[in-house]
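Hey, I'm writing a tutorial for new members on how sequence and structure tokens pair up, and I'd like a real worked example in the thread rather than a made-up one. If someone can provide the structure for the chain below, I'll link this post from the tutorial.
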Amino acid sequence: MLRKGDTIIEVMLAVTVFSLVSVGVYVIMNRSVNSLQTSLEVTLVRQQMDAQVEMIRMIYSQAREAEIPAAINNWQNVITASSMVSSSVPSLPDLIQDDIRCVDPPTSNRFIIHPNTGVAVGGGSSAVFRRADITTPVSLNPVPYASVSVAAGDPSIVHANGIWIQVVRGGSSIPGQPDYPQYYDFHVRACWSSAGDSTVPVTLGTITRIYDAAR
């Protein structure tokens, strides 16, 4: 009895089709995983940024409403120190250099709120700020996304990894002026190289305005 089997052409065609389908599925799955990873990082970074905004509002409330001396000093350090107040802030696209890495934030007018103490730290201190980059050598403590972290050995030390705040002052502090009351726009910015897609860094930004009328 004569039996017929698959020819070499049929086998090669089947292998080719299977390979194309496998590669397509792999590419789709890889993109899905990268998209999910980036979405997760964006959610986590937004939580960090929202926490900074809430602490800024808390400082203002304690300084102006509760009139807590420590909070008053803290608020004054933010809004009066020349090293903290900016005339303008860069746009989000300007946070990326050559489409491959995040630029370093301004050295003089960046700051961050310590998550444990609620104190504004930064200014000209470069030790506080680090770049959030997964390609950073392990010796430099790379972080996968923008975040604010407290040193394990010393809770008084805070590190801002790819995240910072800049404040822009506007309006007038003199009652009766057309642009009264004075206000402060707090720009919270973040830039990091995502583990999901490291080809182009991810940027996020939010702004909160606080009016500081004379009492």
